[in-house]
Give the backbone structure.
Amino acid sequence: MLLIEPQNYDFGPGEENALELDCRKKLYEVTLRYETCGKLNADRSNAVLIEHALSGDAHVTGYHTPEDRKPGWWAEMVGPGKAIDTDRYFVICSNILGGCSGSTGPRSIDPATGKPYNMNFPVITIADMVRAQKRLIDHLGISKLLAVVGGSMGGMQVLQWMIDYPDSVAAAVPIATTAQNSAQNIAFNWVGREAIISDPKFDGGNYDPENPPGKGLSTARMLAHITYLSDETMGRKFGRNLQENDHYAFDFRRDFAVESYLQHQGRRFVERFDANSYCYITRAIDYFDLADRTNGDLAAAFHSAKGKFLVVSFSSDWLFPTKQARALVKALLANHLETNFCEIQSGYGHDAFLLEIDTLGAMVGAFLANTLNEVSSGKQRGAQS
Amino acid sequence: MLLIEPQNYDFGPGEENALELDCRKKLYEVTLRYETCGKLNADRSNAVLIEHALSGDAHVTGYHTPEDRKPGWWAEMVGPGKAIDTDRYFVICSNILGGCSGSTGPRSIDPATGKPYNMNFPVITIADMVRAQKRLIDHLGISKLLAVVGGSMGGMQVLQWMIDYPDSVAAAVPIATTAQNSAQNIAFNWVGREAIISDPKFDGGNYDPENPPGKGLSTARMLAHITYLSDETMGRKFGRNLQENDHYAFDFRRDFAVESYLQHQGRRFVERFDANSYCYITRAIDYFDLADRTNGDLAAAFHSAKGKFLVVSFSSDWLFPTKQARALVKALLANHLETNFCEIQSGYGHDAFLLEIDTLGAMVGAFLANTLNEVSSGKQRGAQS
């Protein structure tokens, strides 16, 4: 049993340790919760940073205690002998800034007031999350990551790393993601937050964590969940099946299996996730546009980027469709960056990055192994710069 | 200026006038609000019934008063000299049973109690809506409609007419619709209703109409609105444009143009639509499955159908995608029914049935004209049966 102990990295007090944010505010006494698996090699060249998605956390693989029944969220992908093989790589995964699973976020105590930030937490960006992670990587004594790997919002962080810290990463694996969050996704996030903010229990974000705005958060999660599945998966998995009755109940309680499933997903989410965090993280996703600093020119955004890329999309993902991956690939190629691209045929929709482990794992495993070989033999372009 | 006067058809009191419903309950003293345009010809063969979608009403074309600034919802399609030419056809459109624009629905007074039904209104189906419409058509002295035409939920009613009253319609034009509502659509409707029902103002449906659960209804409408547009339209129309500021506001108020648009749509909807009605109508859509009576065999559902069909879908409609139209067409062809099918190339998504008037109008206009010619010359198969 792969036992993993979560760790905290505290940035420390005072102005000199403050984290500057894109919104021009600063965060003091930041903590990042992180987990590692595997061993850093002698020349510190085998570190792989995994980036989690919206509702993920630092617990990417293994178990916290021998009693744990559920392993980390990407346990099939990351571990000894897995595609991201912790016998070869030193894997790091940290809970994002703004999260609610150990890292500093809206639920944390504001050192200036001694009370939880709640909605006084500054609005953060994907670049802010990555800036905090860079501190952690520095703290771990790693000057150059072998790779940064992540799906969905994790993929956004991967791309941000390549632009903001081009000398600190050899290879990037952005999966089921985009370089510019779309209007449709902004719209879905808006509706989800409206459901949360309209819940009277939300109380401007000052709810008691023991009595959260569960209805609103559950509605937001159910909506988001629909966007993670494909029409095809939903049809195959649930179709028009009824949950309990032989025929329609002619009422408004859950009647269909798909309704029961969503209800279950919504309730489970409320037990483990913070409503304020949900608002902040979706806002960071809204604000994600790598071409923002280059006046809409996505190719220009990658002008200083180095290293190599493996871009992966899934055919039935309509949240981050393949056409967005192609736009990213085009921007990378315009900069003559070494770019591998694959659209994996899958019916699973956006969630495929968590489910198509065989296909995805083979591809990512080979890409990482090649990169490590290149880095070890000094061939890798980024390593020469 | 085409002035139209809304009319009411009251089914009348007593058991003998009650409307039997699929849920085995009955509705008493039902009223249907309807509008007509054009003149019924001598042999009563030129009547076209238009079916409205979820949020539509009987006001399909023209103006109610000379001061009206906005015409009916399909005015570009229906009127003198338009595709559905009221110089040639007698057009009828009635507000659906369960609606909130003049026909009996949750907001109506229950004759048994003297109070509004609210959530004591029986759960209705598309077949119930059509059963009520049949009474209206009988009342108008029309034994056979030239055609039934409608998009989205209107198209569901079109198909239901062809199955339940095969001798009463010569031709059907189901547009942007399906024969079996999908799991994904059931899921979206569920989330929308959850937003409404969770709104404390909803109060189990017993809200004061002057103080409705506006937050919940607005959230439901905003969500639905996303599904009516395509990702492409949203990208072209709004992209990542900001509404007012030059750069991100770093807060949770509407920042993007698409957020502002949705907010506006949500607020406008609350002014004109009833929250209980929204719940009932979406439930009717959920329950729509023409293969339900034939154990899942869609072809068998059309076994007794007659007349001819023009099935239309739109390439970017992901709410009722073309593959669902193809499944319908396949079922029609299995019964050797005269079937015309066209997928119109359009970027407008589901809303295309309200926007692609040139292409759609040309097709529907020609189809209706041919049908009228056939009926007039006695060639139409249905007319001979």
Notes: The mean pLDDT of chain B is 96. The CA atoms of residues 38 and 165 of chain B lie 24 Å apart. Chain B touches chain A through 54 residues (CB under 8 Å). The longest helix of chain B spans residues 357-376.
